[in-house]
Design a protein that fits this description.
The protein has 316 residues and is of the alpha+beta class. It is 32% helix and 24% strand. The strands form 5 sheets. It has an 8-stranded antiparallel sheet.
């Protein structure tokens, strides 16, 4: 028997599983996860006016030194944008707010203050208007120096949650010396010694959706992106939280969910989010990647790619 515990976090569920029967390690493992998630929340939460990213928004348009953690999270978000050819765009924060994905999803249930109206008539705005590159390509990040284009509000939600899972699993192993699995909603990361039989991960989005089980070796990750969760209505239109950057609107729900296995949770999450955005083009993209993947269509059809669910995904 492995030891496990879970709690509510970020409108989802955090869960930690240890490859160790001694439940006394659970408290220390949970503390590791909470340390990481608290730090990530304080660095980049879009739902907290006191997070570093929100509180320093005006500074960051001029350019400023930021904490190593925030710099790392932005760096991973920009890597995700490059890897996905812009499908996973971290610069859609303002658009998310305009679509209603803000106060209703705040972790403390309280309204988020409206974003300040910025004067975009200065030289910086004029220069920006002449640069036709996507906003994420105009972000300057050098070490811990960060400068954002005028008017751009970052939303690091997807990659930051996945990064938190990666960091938390690694921290448990570093501190306790045992194998660990950390799940933050649809983001699952593992670290430490390989448990007997590997890590068994149940893959299911909603209770009515098809179920699969996949086995991964320690150090591998599984991520799922869904168009069925974090949904709301705005002016009579159904919305979900994964936007197609081309239109600034929720991606067409071709897929109920997409799951990918990869060496890091950030990579897996980047690929699942990109697949949702690409819609009908997702299978071709995932086949080309060679990753083990599972897609559930809007009608419930399951498509398995890359050897999913292979008995052993060490070489997936």
């Amino acid at each position: 028997m492995r030891a496990a515990t879970e709690w509510e976090l970020w409108t989802t569920t955090a869960r930690v599983v240890l490859d160790h029967r001694d439940r006394r390690h659970l408290a220390a493992a949970e503390a590791c996860v909470r340390e990481v998630t608290d730090a990530v929340d304080a660095a980049c939460s879009r739902f907290r006016s006191d997070s570093e990213l929100e509180a320093r928004a005006a500074e960051l348009e001029r350019g400023a030194e930021v904490s190593p953690l925030l710099a790392s999270l932005v760096h991973q978000a920009l890597d995700a944008a490059r890897l996905s050819e812009g499908d996973v765009d971290p610069t859609l924060g303002s658009r998310m707010v305009s679509l209603g994905y803000d106060a209703a999803f705040a972790t403390d249930g309280s309204p988020h203050p409206a974003a300040a109206t910025r004067d975009e008539r200065g030289p910086g705005a004029v220069a920006a208007s002449l640069d036709t590159r996507p906003a994420w390509q105009r972000i300057l990040l050098s070490g811990t120096f960060l400068r954002l284009p005028v008017g751009v509000r970052l939303d690091l939600g997807a990659t930051a949650k996945a990064a938190a899972a990666d960091m938390a699993a690694a921290r448990i192993t570093a501190r306790l010396g045992i194998g660990a699995l950390v799940s933050l909603g649809g983001d699952v990361a593992t670290a430490g010694p390989d448990p007997s039989g590997g890590w068994q991960v149940r893959v299911q989005d909603l209770e009515s959706d098809p179920v699969d089980h996949v086995r991964i070796a320690s150090g591998w990750s599984v991520a799922t992106s869904s168009t069925q969760k974090r949904r709301w209505e705005q002016d009579g239109h159904a919305r979900h939280h994964i936007l197609d950057p081309r239109w600034g609107l929720p991606a067409e729900p071709v897929w109920r969910s997409v799951t990918v296995v990869a060496p890091s949770c950030v990579t897996a999450n980047t690929m699942t989010t990109s697949a949702i955005v690409r819609g009908r083009g997702a299978p071709a993209m995932l086949r080309a990647s060679g990753r083990a993947a599972r897609l559930v269509s809007a009608t419930g059809e399951v498509i398995r790619l890359g050897g999913w669910p292979a008995e052993d995904l060490r070489a997936a």
